[in-house]
Write a structure and sequence with these properties.
Helix content is 35%, strand content 15%. It has 336 residues and is α+β, with helices and mostly antiparallel strands. It has a five-stranded antiparallel beta sheet with strand order 1-2-3-5-4, with helices on both faces. Strands 6-7-8 form a three-stranded antiparallel beta sheet. The longest helix is centred in the middle third of the chain and has 20 residues. The protein is globular and about 55 Å long.
């Protein structure tokens, strides 16, 4: 079955996706440096239809083996990660040497836009809502870190790129960790990993920045940086240079978050600062400890934030226009 596209889709856009089969492309959601993401319907027998997102990689990037490895590696790694808080991958396809990933369609807003909207209103995220969002990301990381292969051998998956732009909050209030494009399982490591820097500078752990390799605790440090920004509107390491990043990590102390947002309770601040310990030995040892501490904090009184509460908060932050539909948070792989 050939791909069916709306008449209004430009010819240039069609060239990027004409090799896909069994899908009706509805519209383009996003375009980045390496590829694009499309909203589509998966078509099947007897009128079967399923809304999906399709991520493609531009043909010119297929000449670089590393680009293809990251793209294909993401699909292979995430294929068996089935968790409410991880964006699901359904299929890796290849036609004529061109690759595409069919994945779960997440209708909502990414956390970067969520933070940006608060800043534009000169507000900061509600503390309880922020703690809830971070707890869901921690649950996703815990699941990925503990994932085993079909023989029961732990894969020790490390995301290595936990950033606000890689987190989606759906309109239903479900938090999704996305973009495992540079994630690594122990069984997939290459000998030169320590010589290659991966991830976005402002969200790197000290061990990433110093080329010392990555562990699940590296993701916990990055999570702490995201949490800090979410609850204070301040990026801890606002740098563009790796040397500047290392210098700040070695010579400057992180300002206590309560100095920037006095509404942060001491217990929540303690969780955040433990995530941000520069010495991994002093950091949380696993993501399970993080989400458990966060949930003890949130539900100590017996009632706390939920998906429904987050959905309502999101709707107040981003009121929907019925005539225009809602925003979509999916972005192309390595769009930045």
């Amino acid at each position: 079955m050939l791909v069916v596209a709306p008449a209004g889709l430009r010819k240039q856009q069609m060239k990027e996706i004409q090799y896909l089969t069994s899908y009706r492309v509805i519209r383009k959601l996003a375009t980045g440096g390496m590829g694009s993401v499309y909203l589509a319907e998966q078509l099947g027998a007897e009128g079967f239809r399923k809304i999906v997102a399709i991520k493609t990689i531009k043909r010119e990037f297929l000449q670089n083996d590393e680009n293809v490895r990251l793209f294909v590696g993401e699909a292979k790694l995430v294929a068996d990660l089935i968790h409410e808080n991880v964006l699901q991958v359904y299929q890796l396809g290849e036609t004529g040497g061109v690759y595409y990933i069919v994945m779960e369609y997440a209708n909502g807003h990414n956390l970067a836009d969520f933070i940006k909207e608060h800043k534009s209103r000169q507000k900061v995220t509600n503390v309880e809502i922020g703690a809830f969002v971070i707890s869901r990301i921690a649950r996703a990381l815990d699941y990925a870190h503990r994932k085993s292969d079909i023989n029961g051998k732990p894969l020790n998956v490390v995301h290595r790129d936990v950033t606000p732009s890689n987190v989606i909050i759906t309109l239903g209030g479900v938090v999704k960790l996305t973009d495992f494009g540079i994630a690594k399982a122990v069984t997939m490591k290459t000998p030169d990993e320590a010589e290659v820097i991966m991830g976005k500078l402002p969200y790197m752990s000290p061990e990433q920045a110093k080329f010392q390799g990555t562990t699940p605790q590296s993701d916990i440090f990055s999570l702490g940086l995201v949490m800090y920004e979410l609850l204070t509107n301040v990026v801890v390491y606002n740098v563009n240079d790796i040397d500047d990043l290392v210098d700040k990590m070695d010579n400057f102390s992180i300002k206590r978050p309560t100095q920037l947002n006095p509404h942060i309770p001491a217990k929540l601040e303690a969780i955040m600062l433990r995530c941000l310990e520069t010495n991994p030995a002093n950091r949380y040892q696993n993501a399970e400890q993080v989400w458990k501490d966060l949930e003890h904090y949130m539900y100590d009184g017996g009632y706390g934030p939920t998906n429904v509460k987050l959905a309502r908060y999101l709707e107040r932050l981003f009121p929907r226009d019925p005539d225009k539909g809602s925003a979509v948070a999916l972005v192309a792989n390595k769009a930045q």
